[in-house]
Amino acid sequence: FYEVHEVVVPHLGRVPITKGDFHALPKKVQKFIAFYVDYMTPRGIYICDGSEHEAHEVITKLMERGTLERLEALENCYICRTDPADVARVESKTFIVTKDKYQTIPHSKPGAKGGMGLWMDPDEMKIEMDSRFKDCMAGRMMYVIPFSMGPIGSDLSKIGIQLTDSNYVLLCMRLMTRVSPKVLDILGDQDFVKCVHSMGCPRPWRRKVINHWPCNPEKVLLAHFPEERKVKSYGSGYGGNSLLGKKCFALRIASNIARDEGWLAEHMLIMGVTNPKGQEFYIAAAFPSACGKTNMAMLNPSLPGWKVRCVGDDIAWMKFNEKGELRAINPEYGFFGVAPGTNWKTNPNAMASFQKNAIFTNVAKRADGMYFWEGLEDELPDDMEVTTWLGQKWKKGQPGLTSHPNSRFTAPASQCPIIHDKWEDPAGVPISAIVFGGRRPTGVPLVFEAFSWEHGVMVGAAVKSESTAAAEFKGKSIMHDPMAMRPFMGYNFGHYLDHWLSMNKPGRKLPKIYHVNWFRVNEKGKFLWPGYGDNIRVIDWMCKRLSGEAKVVPSPIGNLPEKGAIDISGIEDQVHWDELFSLPKDYWLEDAKETRQFLEVEVGDDLPAEIEKQLVEQEKRIAAM
Ligand code: GTP
Ligand code: SPV
Ligand code: MN
């Protein structure tokens, strides 16, 4: 049936293998490829091996075509401007497909907006998919990418194979996941997560290609099939829509695997913090997209004697071990970080991570071959010409944005100067604290501690945040983003809360749970907290809590630090404690009402009784304020 240098498929006949040995692939992988070759009809098949030679070949092609441009000021760095219609995740076109609707979304109540994920029936999705994927790779090369999420061979890791017709996607997958033939050796006859991606631009082009970025924004569709452990994505090359190892696999599919296997797949950074006494604590933190995970994971401490080391900046897979410790790994291999706002003051460690071997998407370029974006003005000579992400000329002081607000850098995690020695430890790191947070301009104090695991799960379920440019939403509305997972939930959110609650078993060392808000503003709209490196002051307090050195003052919403318990030495003039920690009663009455409304209506009958109990208790405490 199969020839050595070609795959024979019923629909197309002989399809050449441009690179790789098809026969050497595990049988299940061969079957997967053959099926999709027949369906998507590419002109050739390129089996990736993750080598440097391969990267070179792909980069050369992308530069010839004009998709990538070299950043001459740096070593092996490139800039890419996408079609301006393809710049963010498209939540309205992102579906979970299950036979039973309620496996995916909660039994919500009348009036629900359906905010907790989108479901589609398999038959309906098949029609949508067939109309897009049939022959979608005509005239294009199909890349086969074997990758591991997590250190290759770790018990906590999982293997995927992505098919894509985008070599930009291949290049980024090589930075974001571990692409290697070793993955196939380890895989053998086992099942893998099937990832199928197409830019949706078969040749001859039916749509005008803008910026050498073939895509199909009108037809974008992402479908997740948790039962089959499969993802299909069409029409977009933007990170979260196309690097399928990331949000699609490591969160939406993995959250299903995690529920079945008794662990957690979360939108969380992982960091190690060492206090001046030399004690190290590991913290995982969940903030919605573009709300500060990368910055916190690489925090440059403003307090003397502290050391921060980064394990991961976006996704955590966490599992209790036999000793009852919650062990976390970062399933990713690189950073896909928000560029604007990143500079040598706010995040020097991120800056250092992308000085070589990095890709910059939708940022601006300086005339001297350096990247540029909002936040780098201090380093920009006055007369330096800048080409914006839209190709316009710009100089310092002129109006307008030079970079898309969701422009990103993609860089190897290993290049981060403070990457943790244990970041690839197959056993993971032991988590002592879980932190939730969001952008909350008013009402929400800098930090509070949950009363218990159960209360903490409720605090996570109540996370809200101002919308950001990471998805398609316009304007700044406050949206619910429970556990920072709303866009990434792989199954019924009520069941997800049950799963979190079920982590509380005898013999387990449950992490303490916190809520932080770096984004509270005064009446003039100015941030009340300096943030970034000064966030170590809040972490310092959390660590003191963990080692039993700091006292708290109970409040209706959780335990607050005793006044003065957070070290603000050196920033006293910037920080007004009472303003930062005030709990306006009207605000919290309204917030409690709104949160109950959201959970009651959107999660409806699937809301765990324990969460309902926590809500009632919190409402009573707030009413008695
Ligand atoms: P995703 O990659 O989308 O998941 O985002 P993220 O959660 O990793 O957010 P990131 O750290 O990239 O920060 C997003 C934006 O928030 C950037 O523009 C930062 O400059 C800004 N930011 C991060 N931390 C702070 C902080 O402590 N205070 C303030 N004021 N802004 C911050
Ligand atoms: C996010 O939006 O949370 C990101 C970027 O980390 S993306 O990969 O697009 O999801
Ligand atoms: Mn993210």
TrEMBL record:
GO cellular component: cytosol
Residue span, Phosphoenolpyruvate carboxykinase GTP-utilising N-terminal domain: 31-259
GO biological process: cellular response to glucose stimulus; gluconeogenesis; glycerol biosynthetic process from pyruvate; oxaloacetate metabolic process; propionate catabolic process; response to lipid; response to starvation
Gene3D superfamilies registered for this protein in UniProt: 3.90.228.20, Phosphoenolpyruvate Carboxykinase, domain 1 (3.40.449.10), Phosphoenolpyruvate Carboxykinase, domain 2 (2.170.8.10)
SUPFAM superfamilies, per the entry: PEP carboxykinase N-terminal domain (SSF68923), PEP carboxykinase-like (SSF53795)
Alphabetical keyword list: Decarboxylase, GTP-binding, Lyase, Manganese, Metal-binding, Nucleotide-binding
Phosphoenolpyruvate carboxykinase C-terminal P-loop domain mapped to chain residues: 263-621
EC number annotated for this UniProt entry: 4.1.1.32
Cofactors demanded by this protein: Mn(2+)
Molecular function per GO: GTP binding; manganese ion binding; phosphoenolpyruvate carboxykinase (GTP) activity
Pfam families in the record: PEPCK_GTP, PEPCK_N
Subunit composition and interactions: Monomer.
Family membership: Belongs to the phosphoenolpyruvate carboxykinase [GTP] family.
NCBIfam families: PRK04210.1 (NF003253)
PANTHER family linked: PHOSPHOENOLPYRUVATE CARBOXYKINASE, PHOSPHOENOLPYRUVATE CARBOXYKINASE [GTP]-RELATED
Protein name, as recorded: phosphoenolpyruvate carboxykinase (GTP)
Organism: Helobdella robusta
